[in-house]
């Protein structure tokens, strides 16, 4: 698969990577839309010069590709939106992304992928306040 990774600058590279494999309690989603917000590019400028490039994308909207052990609430083909765990492999700036089942949500058929991905960045932090 193709994946965008970022290093200090920020500098972006498109690389070839393996499709992530879900671990227990994880979901792999075929990305249709990935959000981008200020922390994504600001975080890259805080990286050390010698830090390995990383896929900073954390906002996912797409179709479930695979689920890990212990995941019963999602199955391949489900429309979902999800959060990727920040600064971990399998980010959303790729063809496939990894999320935890507890940060994955069903996406209603009448909600567009484009409308959902950025909403996660705004709505969930607001709920935590």
From TrEMBL:
It comes from Elasticomyces elasticus. This is Fusarubin cluster-oxidoreductase. The gene is FSR4. Keywords: Oxidoreductase. Signal peptide: none annotated. Residues 23-108 form the Alcohol dehydrogenase-like N-terminal domain. Belongs to the zinc-containing alcohol dehydrogenase family. InterPro entries: ADH-like_N, GroES-like_sf, Trans-enoyl_RdTase-like. GO terms for molecular function: oxidoreductase activity, acting on NAD(P)H. Monomer.
